[in-house]
Amino acid sequence: MAILPTLRGPADLRGLGEAQLAQLADEIREKIIETVSTTGGHLGSSLGVVELTIALHRLLESPRDRIVWDTGHQAYPHKLLTGRYERFDTLRSLGGVGGFPRRTESPHDVFDGGHAGTGLSIGQGLAEARDLRHGLERIAVVIGDAALMSGLSLEALNDIGQRGTRMLIVLNDNEMSISPTVGAFSKYLSQIKLSSVWGKSKSAYDRTIERIPFVGATALELSQRLRKSVVNFAQPGQLFEDLGITYIGVVPGHDLRALLQTFAGALQLKEPVIVHVRTQKGRGYRPAEADQVGFHGAALPPMTAAFEPHANGGSRPVAPGARSRTLSSTGTPAPIGHMPTESMADDAAPATRRAPDAPTKAPNYTAVFVAELIEIARHDRRVVGITAGMPTGTGLNKLQAEFPDRFFDVGIAEQHAMTMATGLAMGGERPVVALYSTFLQRAFDQVVHDVCQNDQPVVIAVDRAGLVGEDGTSHQGMFTLPAQRQVPNLVIASPKDEQELRALLRTAFSQDHPFALHYPRDPGFNLPAVEPKVIPVGQAELLQDGSEILLIGFGPIVDRARQAAARLAADGWSVGLINARWAKPLDRQLILEQARGKRLVVTLEESVVTGGFGSGVLELLEEARTVDPAFREVILKIIGIPADRFVEHGSVADLRGLIRIDVDGITAQVRETLATLHAVPGTSAAKPV
Q: Which residues are catalytic?
């Protein structure tokens, strides 16, 4: 009898026996693989923490006790154990279960995760607040080995050790980033430190040694050095011990009995403790075990969703024709199809099923960007690439393959990436820092004070600009443009299509100022290749002339503006269209020439409207109105992402429709504005009907 569908919450785990818990682990893996094969999602990381999650929820009393997931993409088992089994098939879809912890979904989700390295600071804050009010709840943070090396995590570890904040830190080590254990001695020493006798005897021994006349202080110092050297030899966690955090490990991460025993002992300690757990990414699904990079992101290689229980925990794929559990979005059996490959790690893309003879998608903007960058680098040895733990996602792994000595992956440290790029530029190189828009937010201070204040020619490749879809609120690239518009010396550009992206990248290297190039995660328009030419900075493009309405688009939304213009023309309006290309500096001359005397000017951007591209055009028109009466009757409508709320998860197409920045929504908003103005085609701005 299946166990997972019967669980009402994590408290039910305490009534299960050891064999039932092993069965539950199999069921969780089966459900995750079955769902993710249809919806897409972070498969490998979640499969690796199944036993770890069961153990924590069996011992802790969530939501009274708090479990923080860093990074949140490993929280699928947690979601299944906390009341979201029935809705789990809606993972990452509009209105469905989010791909990261969401407080609005469940009281068991402590905070809205999504960015790596935040968990320890969140956990410490919860623990310190607990201690201030003399609470009793226990705090646990599950953090991956890569996130542990982020600057924010290291800062948090230092403070946690210094303050002695009581909390459990579970280090999920699935890449062997921490030094390996030397064997049984390490296990024995961990067991000693988990015992209450260890802490009491250690303190008593130190006090006794210190009281020895004349040589007490020296003897104590030598004794502590010896103890430290023994621990350092036996275990890989001396760094944490030096910071004041008790280190326990290494614990096998798929041995439920070992996890339960270790966590139970660690939770009894009155001090910060880190339990080093060795897990296998993709555990239970052989393709994911073999290809841990490919099965990390939310867009996965081709996979099946057929299962076979495994005696040691997890599941195994069975041969074609065997018991298949792949379901369609309606819950009915569906044929096994192909999931999108991680084409430049398009890890925000949903899983899609297409027939074998379906047309191939056009290359996405990331692929076009990196191909052009490599071509530029072949002719300019100064070009170097930098990313922050995302070489595949940003496409820079292609640059690394061709120019390994001109590529830097600094790990999850966007701040360091940006400042390092400044130094490289000062040394005569031409660095390109490729980051997702949502993660670039972390390095705002470095963009301002390091790159731009020093006016260094750093190219900031803003990947995933705009809506990214299923990863939801923490990943939408909607805030970067307004933040950057205020920064001196920074040039900001975005192309209308993939061929213009190539030209703008060439332009970035033709000038000597900081240059932010925004492009989405979308596929391009499959346009034929043209020779990329440098575009003068600040020069926009007039795509069509019109006498009544002017549409001005920034970025690939220009194509939607073109389609909306055709519909408005069918209504009888004379519509002009500008491809802005530049948010900073604006093409003042072209915009003012085309806006003069218009009944309505409409700006379009896939960014929050507050302080964004449209705001820049508004500032330009307001300045012109003070000196030229021809602009005083011009009305401006700004279309973009509303700034009063975060954008939820769902497909990009669904979200654009919801926000009304698809073709239908743009057309409707313009028509509504014209109706409000009581304007009809053929009527001048000065004489509305």
A: 281, 414, 442
The residue written with tokens 């989405």 in the block is 520
On the CB side of 284, CA atoms within 13 Å amount to 35
- Total residue count of the chain as it appears in this document: 689
How much of the chain is in helix, strand and coil states, percent to nearest 5?
Answer: 45, 15, 45
Q: Which two tokens stand for residue 668?
A: 């409707």
Q: Rounded to an integer, what distance in angstroms lies between the CA atom of residue 365 and that of residue 437?
A: 14
Domains of the chain: 4-181+236-278 (3.40.50.970), 365-518 (3.40.50.970), 542-676 (3.40.50.920)
The closest alpha carbon to 433, from 502, 373, 363, 368, belongs to: 373
pLDDT of residue 320: 33
The answer for residues whose C-beta is within 8 angstroms of residue 501's C-beta and 6 or more apart is 365, 368, 369, 372, 495, 517, 519, 524
For residue 325, pLDDT beyond 50: no
Q: Which residues contact 660 (CB under 8 A, 6 or more apart)?
A: 639, 666, 668, 669
According to the 3-state scheme, what is the secondary structure of 510-551?
A: HCCCCEEEECCCCECCCCCCCCCCCCCCCCCEEEECCCCEEE
Residues whose CB falls within 8 Å of the CB of residue 445, separated by 6 or more in sequence, listed in order: 415
**pLDDT, greater one: 456 or 189:** 456
Percent of the chain, pLDDT > 90? 66
Distance CA 618, CA 638 (A): 9
